[in-house]
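FAQ

Q: What does a record look like?
A: Structure on top, sequence underneath. For example:
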């Protein structure tokens, strides 16, 4: 079955190829989808929406007063004179709350540093205990030498007294 168009002057036009019709319809659908996505992207969320989310997550804006110097150059009698004016201005500064990842990272750093401190202190205490044991062994030897001398001297006195 042929599709034939009849114009106002009763002349027929050539029938359109079915593949060309499908291609034109697909192109039209693509352009409408892209257009809808662009419109949705432009009008979807505004700055006030993002500002509300920022405040809900705990963000704050603090105003701090800063002093800015403004210089003006004025010509008086052919000479340049510079006038400086100090102006206090309120400058808003944003304090952004930490994200989950930043909180986890800080916790890991703190935990790892505490673990390394524990390990180092444990290692140092073991080393101090070893040194103390070695020093005790040296003094312990002096104890036995003194004990031996203390036992030998009375025996010698008895031997000398018997001979006299």
């Amino acid at each position: 079955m042929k599709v034939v168009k009849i114009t106002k002057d009763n002349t027929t036009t050539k029938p359109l190829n079915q593949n060309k019709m499908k291609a034109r319809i697909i192109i039209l659908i693509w352009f409408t989808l892209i257009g809808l996505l662009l419109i949705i992207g432009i009008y979807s969320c505004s700055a006030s929406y993002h500002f509300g989310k920022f405040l809900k997550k705990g963000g704050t804006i603090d105003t701090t007063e800063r002093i800015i110097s403004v210089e003006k150059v004025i010509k008086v009698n052919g000479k340049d004179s510079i006038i400086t004016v100090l102006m206090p201005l309120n400058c808003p500064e944003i304090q952004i709350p930490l994200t989950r990842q930043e909180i986890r990272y800080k916790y890991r750093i703190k935990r790892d540093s505490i673990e390394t401190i524990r390990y180092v202190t444990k290692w140092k205490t073991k080393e101090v205990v070893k040194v103390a044991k070695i020093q005790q062994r040296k003094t312990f030897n002096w104890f036995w030498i003194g004990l031996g001398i203390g036992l030998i001297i009375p025996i010698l006195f008895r031997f000398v007294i018997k001979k006299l």
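Q: Is there anything notable about this one?
A: The chain has three domains: 1-44, 60-95, 98-164.
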